[in-house]
Amino acid sequence: MNYYTLLSLVLTLVQLCPCTPSKQKQSTKNTNQSFTAVRRVKRGWVWEPLFATEEQTPTQPLYVGQLKSDLDKQDGNLQYILTGEGAGSIFVIDEYSGKIHVIQKLDREKKSFYTLRAQAINRNTHLPVEPESEFIIKVRDINDHEPQFLDGPYVATIPEMSPEGTSVTQVTATDGDDPSYGNSARLLYSLIQGQPYFSVEPKTGVIRMSSQMDRETKDQYLVIIQAKDMVGQAGAFSATATVTINLSDINDNAPKFQQRLYYMSISEEAPVGTTIGRLMAEDSDIGENAAMNYFIEGDSTDVFDIITDNETQEGIILLKKRVDYESKRRYNVRAKVVNRYIDERFLEEGPFEDTTIVKINVQDVDEPPVFTLENYVMEIAEGAVSGSLVGVVTARDPDNDDSPVRYSIVHGMYLKRLFSINEHNGTIITTKPLDREIAAWHNITVTATETRNPEKISEANVYIQVLDVNDHAPEFPKYYETFVCENAFSGQLIQNISAVDQDDSAEGHHFFFSLAQEATNNSHFTVKDNQDNTAGIFTAKSGFSRQEHLSFYLPILILDNGTPPLTSTNTLTITVCDCDIEVNIFFCRYGAFMYSIGLSTEALVAVLACVLILLVFILAIVAIRQQQQKSLFSEKMEEFRENIVRYDDEGGGEEDTEAFDISALRTRTVMRTHRPRKNMTTEIHSLCRQSLQVGPDSAVFRQFILEKLEEANTDPSAPPYDSLQMYAFEGTGSLAGSLSSLGSNMSDVDQNYEYLMDWGPQFKQLASMYVSHRSVRD
């Protein structure tokens, strides 16, 4: 086995293009480090990586390194062979000396290393002297790429007044060179534009605040950042990026009123809720940081109010209570504005509020009279004589001129018939006595009008209560239908009674019941007062007879507790009933009715039977008369039908155009209008003459029309209206001839139906019938 000596290969860099002095110096420095030593091992070679620097396209082969065997006697017997990636196209080897050259440009960003195989053979025997071995050539990077900001341009936002050193954003640039070799991909960031407000960290690209900035002064900044490779050394490549930095708003400004004093006015007749004016406070902040709330301070809060317009951020002053020029002519209102959202970080700088004064003047207007009260309540006793005093209303003119006032009552003539008012002093009196039971309250409306300006009118409601007077005696609430059985025993309760009173009692009604004086000593009944506004009627004896007394009339005295007390006598009718002890109302009513008219039950049944028979007889007569009326109507209908005449007369065919012109009967000259019956004969004669003119020239046809006309004129049963007779006549001269056999001068025997056989299979059956029929006759 042969052992080989491993030789060191030296990489020589040759610059084929013009370069800067710095690059040439760098290339010369890297030349001695292009190749690493190759170590010899038993049975084959193991190659350490070789390095080649990427260059521009070489004008001549660029030396990379040399392969040499210890068996090479330099007599030309050994041949060096190079195979693998780029062998022959990118890398070539001198087969005699083993020197490797690169003949094309290398780009590390496209391919960073090449794997090759080397072999030494005997040129004469073509047998390998050295075993084939693999080695790697790595492409060493040079600074041939510029940095790039892939995410630019940048936009960042940071709150205003942020402290110094606050991070704003970070910019990042990339470099296509090899970051593991040299400084080609090592970037350094710097600030070109943006001082003294911002700074940038050289290695990370983080932009930071250098000072506090106010958005209200400037709200946007444009910063330019530069990135350089080669750690910023001379000759390095660079790139720039723009960063737009916006300052967001914070609430660091208090609202301020535009004026220290405002003047406004309001009419004294303005209703509640009227807008008096608007206040505007300025806030340099924006958005919700500029949102404000307005308030009113002091004694004016009862009269005025202020609300915030959220769209315009204005304070709207509203009238909360009506003002009066004669009472107060000017108001000094203290208004305050406060930020709605306050940043606690800036509270130490002062309160975020402001105040102003609003002077509001009340404008005088001619006001209507004012009543001393909005509603008056008065009382008067019922039954008071006409002209009685009810009360007095008072109104005055609130203006300085104090115009006289005239009073009147409105709302209905009915109230005017009950009350009247003195138009000068407002005294209300009655014009007729009042009845509380008809109306306990009267509501009237009184107006007060300025005599100097009648358009100024005001109203007041007057409620008049009619006080009750005990002027109605108590009475039964209803009619009592009372029965007593013939076999009733003494002391039996037969009826409970009560009483009502139309008057109103402040202490409540209390009624007392007793028998009238005239019935006390001669009565079959007694009254027991229950002390609860009711009383019971009891029998005073046993047994009653309808033959002796059918009814009893019991006078009952009722007394109320009014002042003065009133009494009334009410009569209770008690009917004797044919019963044992218990009263049956229906049976007793029936018995009393029969007994009063003097009829028995049998007699009543007989009367009802007679009434029923009479009713049936009347219904039968009505039915017969209806049947007779129907018969008369049928006969009249038959008479009407006799006037409808139908005639069948064959014409000359569809081509007969010289026959009777039916359109003539439909002309306006023939159609007669409705006229009185007295002129009917004249019009019928006229129609006849027109018909004779348009009809066929036939004496028979003309005679027929005249006869019908005569019948119509002399018929007493003719209907009371005109009837139009229409006749059609075909005429003569039709080319097709008549289809009728009437008047034909030919018989069937003379007819020849042989032509039917030529009509086709559709008429085969018809032809066979006629042809066969004629054959039989022949």
TrEMBL record:
Membrane-spanning ranges: 603-624
Gene3D superfamilies for the chain: Cadherins, TCF3-CBD (Catenin binding domain)
Location in or out of the cell: Cell membrane
Membrane topology recorded in Swiss-Prot or TrEMBL: Single-pass type I membrane protein
Domain Cadherin: 69-149, 150-257, 258-371, 372-476, 476-586
Signal sequence, start to end: 1-22
Cross-referenced InterPro entries: Cadherin, Cadherin-like_dom, Cadherin-like_sf, Cadherin_CS, Cadherin_Y-type_LIR, Catenin-bd_sf
GO molecular function: beta-catenin binding; cadherin binding; calcium ion binding
A cellular-component GO term for this protein: catenin complex
GO biological processes: adherens junction organization; calcium-dependent cell-cell adhesion via plasma membrane cell adhesion molecules; cell migration; cell morphogenesis; cell-cell adhesion mediated by cadherin; cell-cell junction assembly; homophilic cell adhesion via plasma membrane adhesion molecules
Protein origin, superkingdom: Eukaryota
Function of the protein: Cadherins are calcium-dependent cell adhesion proteins.
PANTHER family: CADHERIN-19, CADHERIN-23
Protein name: Cadherin 19
Annotated organism of origin: Apteryx owenii
